[in-house]
Write the structure tokens for this entry.
Amino acid sequence: MSKSRQVVTRRAFAAGSLATVAALGASPLLALQSPATMGKPVGADVEAANLKVVDAFCAAFKKKDMDTIASLLADDCTYRLLQNRPPVVGKAAVVETIKGFVARGIEFKVLKSVVLGPVVLNERDDIVAAAAGQPAMTIRVNTGMFYVQHGKIVEWTDYVLP
């Protein structure tokens, strides 16, 4: 019994791939673009503005300024308390989730920030106010990741090593 082997040329493979992309509703030209041409470059002024948004957001926690916190969140924002937690979706739900932290007292002490276009990463210590008879607790956030668009935080996830 012999096995038949079908040979596919590069041209046939490329034509089939472009047809698949088109069938999925995308422009075949999109498949030919290099990654460098798919996005717009972000200027240093936009990166500085994005950092300013995240810095103001983090500073507002120590001041217990829920109005500023809420004003810096996009209506459709997503928040993950930790990388392995399900996301909280929507401004109202995110504000409700963090209200308790703010009421108790928490400071985001930013140690280092890096801005890459719309993404702001910070390393920080989150200092949670002491409960009755307990010392304050410091949580090292290895990476706080914020995606900023049009001056609002669209996504926020904190990554903490166990």
User: Anything to note?
Assistant: The helical segments are 10-23, 28-32, 44-62, 66-71, 91-104.
